[in-house]
């Protein structure tokens, strides 16, 4: 039996070329203009699963974009791993800020990636990370090294809230039955410090609209005498955090699980350089909730951020105007045991309550999701930890992430299984940003590590 490392050295160029082909299809789920490309991507993923050796693959229709399903069942008495990933990507905007076109992948060397990194939208999030699983499966099947059953479920709406996946889960519990769910859609600390993600934040995402006068007004004739919706919106947003950067929405922190000093001390052991962090972002100082350090602020604490704000005149030159309306998109990242539906309601009531007379306020909820935390004493975590030890020569560090994959908490509820988050991305991969990239080293290391997860998980399960 050929081992995975030698299989990779023989086939790595093809592994890279195949991923590049997948990255050329602009599967932007947020924009209906790309609908056909999203569907074509689903078909490409299905074909790749078939080629890798699945016995059965399928495009499962949903009310939204389809879910790609594939399976290789070798023996129903053996454990089953369910792999989840997403084939949709974020919009590439702002396209001007890319050094090369977002859907024309190129490999370039960077300081962190002397072996080269693939630059394209979706390179890391999540096509590159998802495709590692397809190639690991190819290896295991081709070399009679698949020790258990495997199912793949790759969706096309992760970046827009996974609504159809919830629908699909409810209707396919039997089909999706598994012993553990495996996902690569997160990151790790660094190339020489492997880590396993043990938590994800929840999310409440809302859009607000502030309406003042019934039309845009001359800012000289009316300025000072009527409420300017942009001024008001800015003041309202500013009030949502106090001088300690504590969120002021009544009840917001009621269900937040406070970590013990011992747990926080444990977290602080993970390697982190504040100087390096500031340098990478070109900021003079970090900023956040008083009483917490950076790695706590972005993982175990809830947040509130404006993601976009607009209204009035933003074109060339100057136009003197008081706009009739102003808008903002606001996200709140949540931690256990906050409930996103409750938080959305608390936000709405509070935002309406702080609006002065003279404007009307509308709060429109978008999507949301529950936070997730997984223990490190599960069979899946142990198997993952051993897999990293094998390929990195180091025990991975458990780490809670600030990002969200809202569907993960639903997996636990609907499918009753634990999720293991084996992410191989780096914070510097610029996911959701211009110049997203994924290191070739990370891609190949992921492919190398995954088969060991299957091996150890099966061994642990079979006792
Ligand atoms: N893969 C990311 C989430 C992620 C990235 C988690 C890195 C941890 C580390 C996922 O595709 C994503 O972008 N999720 C969205 C939420 C979604 C509802 C749009 C997010 O976190 O903003
Ligand atoms: Mn993702
Ligand atoms: Mn994403």
Automatic annotation (TrEMBL):
GO molecular function, one term: peptidase activity
Keyword terms of this UniProt record: Hydrolase, Metal-binding, Protease
NCBIfam families, per database record: PRK07907.1, PRK08201.1, PRK09104.1
One matching Pfam family: Peptidase_M20
Any Gene Ontology biological process: proteolysis
Keyword Protease: yes
Domain Peptidase M20 dimerisation residue range list: 199-358
Protein name in the entry: Dipeptidase
